[in-house]
Input
Amino acid sequence: MVSQAFNERKSPGPEILGFLWPAPKPLAPFELVSTKDETFSIDSLKGHWTFMFFGYTSCPDVCPTALTKLTGVVKNLRSKGADDDVQVVFVSVDPVRDTIARMQQYVGYFDKSFVGATAALEQLDVLTRQLGILHERTAPDDSGSYLVDHTASVMLIDPSARLVGVFSAPLEVESITSRFQSMRAFLEKQI
Amino acid sequence: MNFNIMVLFAGLCFSFASNAIAAREPSYQIENQWVREAPPMASMLAGYLQIRNTTDRAAMLIDVSSPEFRKVEIHRTEVENGIARMVRQESVQVPANGVLVFEPGSYHLMLMMPTAPLNAGDTVSFRFEFEGGRSFDVIAPVKRADSPN
Output
């Protein structure tokens, strides 16, 4: 009886690339500094579907490409009236150079609704470790400038603050939009 | 008189035609070049293009420079096990009778420290230098990348 109820709750779910069902990962508390409110914490995730991408503002190719794709996803959802509880968060893994003022200009360029967040590495890694995000600075060049290698996937976190999906590179607007909508439709039926 | 005009016209046609043929002589062409507009505070931008090599020998691009940037490097984004890293390329080879594409998420020009702010509608001059002494000057428009699918 119990196992039947359990099976019902954890139904196999649809086959969607990047969907973490039936094992979504509940997140533990973390705290970042945000461009929107003072902090971005686990409470900022609750009640929203969050697309989270990790990068840095001195990244000329991967990060602007990912954020441009996410503006496309948001536009798609907006056109369907399905963006109300959706947020896009860009988390900098380069807190030494990426001040909040800098992040504000950066994320605002892509979409006024995008949130930028970061924290000192120790705090940042409370979140990155939970999401399986890796980031590593490369050796600085003669002018002291460095790059940061980082995970290039977009994480999807549900309104209960669980990691439910991972969209891997190369990111495609239509594919992310439709996979997100399928994941969301399924999860909303599970409650 | 009419005949003379016709001869002159025919001569002009021939001259245009031979110019067109000259343009198609085996060579290297830089095509579809553009610079991605970046947020106002950005000190790093990226440039994209394709290089067409219509010769029977591989071409080796060894340097790119621009008066609009203090430093230009050739990079390639590589994603391995989900991790993106940019790898500097000392040179890149364009295959004989082939095309090498610089595009988001792959080969790109890493454009560092712009000498002045660049916005969509501005242009950037580049000099591409190939092994063997050939060099090509091109002008690239700065464009906003609007959510390509």
